[in-house]
Every structure is written in structure tokens, then in C-alpha cells.
Amino acid sequence: MDKWWRNAVIYEVYPRSFADSDGDGEGDLAGVRAHLPYLRDLGVDAIWLTPFYPSPMADGGYDVADYRDVDPRFGTLDSFDEMLAQAHALGIRVIVDIVPNHSSSAHPWFVEALASPPGSPARDRYIFSDTTNDWRSVFGGPAWAQVPDGQHYLHLFDPGQPDFNWRNPQVRAEFESVLRFWLDRGVDGFRIDVAHGLIKAVGLPSLGPDDGTSSVVPYQDQDEVHEIYRDWRRILDSYPGDRIAVAEAWVSDPSRLSLYVVADELHQAFNFDFLQAPWDGPALRHTIDRCIAAADAVGAPTTWVLSNHDVRRQVTRLGSLDRARAAILLMLALPGSAYLYQGEELGLPEVLDLPPHARQDPVWKRSGGTELGRDGCRVPMPWSGDTPPFGFSPNGASWLPAPASWATLTAQAQAADPRSTLSLYRDAIRLRRAGNATGPLQWLDSAPEVLHFRRPGGLSCLVNLSGAPLPVPDGTGERVLASAPLVDGALAVDSAAWFID
Ligand code: GLC
Question: How far apart are alpha carbons 376 and 366 in whole angstroms?
Fold first, then answer.
């Protein structure tokens, strides 16, 4: 039998915004546990939890102060264990986030580094330097911060997220121990944050003027990073069950991405090319072909994703709910595994008009408010009821306000409606499993603005990206699902349907 992860549907839970059990306005692990039956009914194979570790929350928890504990706002190690046991009892695997590129500035190692002199072993666990280069923080501004004795430390993200020195053996040993800590607790794997960033080029060379000729960035996708993942794979394989790791690797092209998923490294790597592709038939087909070919070349599955906690929700990004509904039928019909982000199954749009005082993303803060940042895709889940925050918390508290217009989008409002987006996701996940999600994709003849392909199990998918209704071709088989009602046997503009022959 194929390994579970090769065609799994994995659901990203952003715990702070999923479900609040104790009324502090922030979601928590007990809230995740309480909603596991919802995820079972949705039909997902696994969940990925973004960081819930102790953190000053300079970057929503991606600034970890202790890799072996749970932040009190999210619960305790006991509440983690209870959530994990309950997930496993319901047949849902659990993947946790590991953040190895940087810690929080509140991590004891960084506190020790600051208290230690330049050149000391404590400083060598991070990247301290007497001089700086021209590297920029992903969140805006320089990537270096100065400490009182005059040295500077590297932070590719927020100043509260100092980068580790992965050439230091203590850093490597520490993360191997952290992996074992969570594997021993029973987790099914890890999502590796900034997996492409751990190794920086020797000498920390400046980028120099951007003349558009160089695609090699000295702090991204350095070949030596693969040594680390070979070590991690050996650890994962030493545990019973199929424990996995998925890379968040932003790299220049699919062939570079495939290097992360060779047989002795990681299992999956998010395919961001697909996420970033425009709503355009030829562009999507080209991206799909390139990504499948690159993964096939190393015997790995592709790992599709349309949204996550860092990008604009697809209803808004693609321009309409119709397109988002068609896009998910496209994605879930493709060979390989698929990641969903909480709330996309409800068709949630990006919230673009959050009040400035509510915004917390360092992108917003560091850009001086010129970039909205990522809070708009992190608004808490609307579960039930008519008024914000729609059952997110027991007492109406919510760290980001939900729009009143979400009353019709709650899980409760959609659960019993067969035409809802929630029902579309449930049906698609069930049919995908039943219709044999393994085996390659075969393109069928179509106009460039139409995507039409068939899978070996007999499932075919037709997507209409053209500007006119599309009559379903003869011999397409029995229609089993559609993102929009057909009119006179034709697929509406920006819609998709599945057929079984
Ligand atoms: C990843 C996370 C993102 C975070 C960044 C720094 O890209 O997905 O949310 O801000 O890493 O840890």
C-alpha cells in the first residue's frame, strides 16, 4: 500500500485563531481538541499545528522561547497530550511545526549570548558579527540589530527572531533532541519552518546591487542544508509508524525544491509555485506539469497548497468565491498530497479592513503600515451563531475582530447546506479517497483556457477558465461533483466539475 502521506489531505490549524476554550480571546489546544470531530467529518488525514510553544509572540509564535513546552495561552503539555490522543483516536495524525532557523530573543541561549562577550561560545550559537552586510529582513528593514557592546546579530525576520548558527554542533544536537522530544510524545511529523534558510554562505557575502542576473541568495537554499535533513530523516525513520517532515522551502524553481524530497531527506515540500500561479489556464497547466515532472524525477509526490497563514486567502487572491471553489476541485484532483488552511473550507475571504490597532503582524509594524501583512488571513474561525466572533470563544472575546458579514459563513450555517463550500470540501475529500487518488495525470484534449485531465482510477476533472460557458464534452462520464450548478449541460465560467467513468 502507498504510504499515507503520498496522497494525504492535511489541514493546517493556526491554534491562536481556531477555537478558544477558556475565553481569553485566543484559541488553544483544548479548543483544537473540542473541534476534532469537525475535522474528522471534513475527512482530513492529518492536521499540522503552527507553533504553540512559549513565545513573546513577536511573530505569532514563530519566535520560540522554549522548544519543549506549551505557551500558557495555548495550554500545557498535558493538554497537548490529550489533544494528540483524541486526534489519534479519531484517526487523525498530528504534525507540529519546528522553527529551526531562529529562536526568540527570549530563548535562554540568546539571553546567555547577550550576557556573554563577543567571541564566546554562547554567541557562536547565533550569528554575531562586528560588521554588517546588506541583507534585508523579510519583514522589512535591515537584517541586523546592534547590541550594547557594538556587535550586531542577524535576524532574517523580526529582531525578536535571532538566526541560529547551523555550523555550530550544539545547535544541530539541540534540534535533534527537540525532534525526539516530540516524536517520543507521539507526533506524526514536523513542518519545517524556513527550511531553505538554515545555512548561510560562508563569509556572509553581501547581495550587492540587484542587476537581476543572480538567483543565488547567500542565505537561501544553500546546498549544505541538505546534510541536516539527511540527519533528520534518519531520526524520523528510527521511530515506528510513518513519521514525516514537510519543508516550507521558498526556492527558485521546482527542480531545486525536489532536492528537499529525495529518498533520504524529507517527505514533502510545499509547492508554492502552484499557490502563486495566476488564474489562467496555460499558466496553471505549465506549473502543474513542471512541478509534477520535478517531483517525479526524484520519486516524490507533489504537495499542493492554495493557502496558509502567510498568504492572502484564495477567495480574495483569485478574485471570487467561484474561482476558489473551482480551484479546490482542481487541486484535490491532482496526484500527490494536499494541504488546506483552516477556514478555506468555509470560503472565508481575506479581511482587508482590520482596524490598525488590532493588527499584530510584524510586517504591518515594520513597514510602518504600508503593507497590511498577514493578520487578514488569521481572523478567528467562525463556528456558529449570528454575531462576531461566531462561537470562537465562550464569552465573545477575540484577538482579531471577525466581520459581521461572516454570519452566513459559519461552519454551523454551512453544515447542512449541500451547496455550501463546506459541503463541497467534504464531498471532494470523500470522492478523492474513493476515486483512487494515486497514479499519474493524463491531460485530455481541450482549449488552452480549459483544464481537462483524467486519473487512472477513473476520476476526471474539467475546469473552465475561459470567458464563456463550456459544454461538457461527450463521453466525459458521470458527473459526481461540481463547484457551480451546470446550465443546459454547460460548466459556468470559473467553475469545475468531477466525473467518474
Ligand atoms: C515562516 C512562517 C511565517 C513566519 C516565518 C518566520 O514563513 O510560515 O509565519 O513569519 O516563517 O518564522
Answer: 16
Residue of 17, 52, 62 to test ligand 1 pocket, by largest number of atoms within 8 Å of CB: 62
Chain-centre distance of CA 124, in angstroms?
31
Cα 50 vs. chain centroid, distance in angstroms? 8
Cα separation, 97 vs 56, in Å, equals 17
Most informative mutation of 12, 59, 161, 308 for ligand 1 (most atoms within 8 A of CB): 59
**Which atom in ligand 1 lies closest to the alpha carbon of residue 50?**
8
Q: Is 12 a catalytic site residue?
A: no
In 3D space, the residue among 253, 199, 250, 244 whose CA is nearest the CA of residue 224 turns out to be: 199
- Which residues, at least 6 apart from 48, have a Cβ–Cβ distance to it below 8 Å? 10, 11, 12, 13, 95, 96, 97, 191, 246, 339
User: 29-83 pLDDT, tens per residue?
Assistant: 999 999 999 999 999 999 999 999 999 999 999 999 999 999 999 999 999 999 9
> Which phi and psi angles does 304 have, rounded to 5°?
-85, 150
Instruction: Tell me the domains of the chain and their CATH numbers.
Output: 4-101+169-421 (3.20.20.80), 108-154 (3.90.400.10), 439-500 (2.60.40.1180)
Q: How close is the Cα of 9 to the center of ligand 1, in Å?
A: 22
Please, which residues bridge with residue 96 across strands? 49, 190
Beta bridge partners of 154: 144
**What's the pLDDT score for residue 2?**
80
Nearest of 307, 294, 314, 304 to residue 334 by alpha carbon = 304
Report how far residue 83's alpha carbon sits from residue 36's, in angstroms, rounded to the nearest whole number.
Answer: 9
Out of 59, 97, 193, 322, which one is annotated catalytic? 193
User: Is the Cβ atom of 375 under 6 angstroms away from ligand 1?
Assistant: no
Q: Alpha carbon 428 to chain centroid distance?
A: 20
Give dist(CA 265, CA 222) in Å, integer. 15
Span 395-422, pLDDT tens digits: 999 999 999 999 999 999 999 999 999 9
Closest to 248 in 3D by CA, of 386, 331, 158, 341: 341
- Give the pLDDT confidence score for residue 434 in this predicted structure: 79
CB 74 within 8 A of CB 25: no
Q: Is 455 a residue whose pLDDT tops 70?
A: yes
- Indicate if ligand 1 lies below 6 Å from the C-beta of 163: no
CA distance 194 to 179: 16
